[in-house]
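Budget justification aside, the reviewers requested a transparent look at the raw inputs and outputs of the sequence design task funded under Objective 1. We therefore reproduce one unedited record. The lines immediately below are the structure tokens for a 198-residue chain.
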């Protein structure tokens, strides 16, 4: 085989491997739960708040949720122990448009179901943007801050947001719903169905 053919084949092979690696990296990054590309929302569409500026938020009921220790987003931990039978968790991110739609439903759920402790887990490093979004929406439920996706990782959740997680009286995850809700009634019915089946 001529020397030019061998060199040409090696160059084509190296370029091909580089293209495949670039595509694989791009696909993996866009599917991350804390990636604005995963939600179709660009970061330019949301006003950026400095990570040092975390607006005040309600205190969290405990230092952990579903056995995962997380700091409280804009509030303090363990304001009062909860006597709720179930904890309902909304896993969300500030750049997620479906999260914006459904987060107010969790406030309504807390108001209508005192037997539930309803909290959020913000799955993104930008705590300031997360707290600001909740305040802009008028959402009152407390939320935890998860900079490293520890919550989703510990529970084996898929890499998407939003996800609704149902935690039982024993503090362990009973079920999860990887779906964006567009009505309060659908959210309430889905949670009731999961609790009855637990």
């Amino acid at each position: 085989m001529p020397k030019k053919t061998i060199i040409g084949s090696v160059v084509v092979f190296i370029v091909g491997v580089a293209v495949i690696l670039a595509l694989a990296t791009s696909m993996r990054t866009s599917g991350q739960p804390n990636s604005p590309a995963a939600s179709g929302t660009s970061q330019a569409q949301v006003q950026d708040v400095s990570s040092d500026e975390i607006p005040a938020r309600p205190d969290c009921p405990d230092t952990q949720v579903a056995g995962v220790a997380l700091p409280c987003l804009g509030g303090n931990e363990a304001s009062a122990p909860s006597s709720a039978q179930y904890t309902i968790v909304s896993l969300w991110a500030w750049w997620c448009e479906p999260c914006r739609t459904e987060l107010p439903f969790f406030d309504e759920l807390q108001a209508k179901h005192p037997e539930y402790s309803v909290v959020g887990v913000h799955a993104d490093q930008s705590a300031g943007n997360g707290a600001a979004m909740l305040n802009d929406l008028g959402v009152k439920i407390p939320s935890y801050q998860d900079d490293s996706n520890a919550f989703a990782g510990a529970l084996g959740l898929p890499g998407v947001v939003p996800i609704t997680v149902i935690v039982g009286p024993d503090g362990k995850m009973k079920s999860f719903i990887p779906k964006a809700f567009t009505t309060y009634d659908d959210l309430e019915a889905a949670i009731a169905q999961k609790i009855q089946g637990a």
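The first strand starts at residue 64 and ends at 65. The chain has two domains: 1-30, 42-197. Computational costs for records of this kind are itemized in the attached budget.
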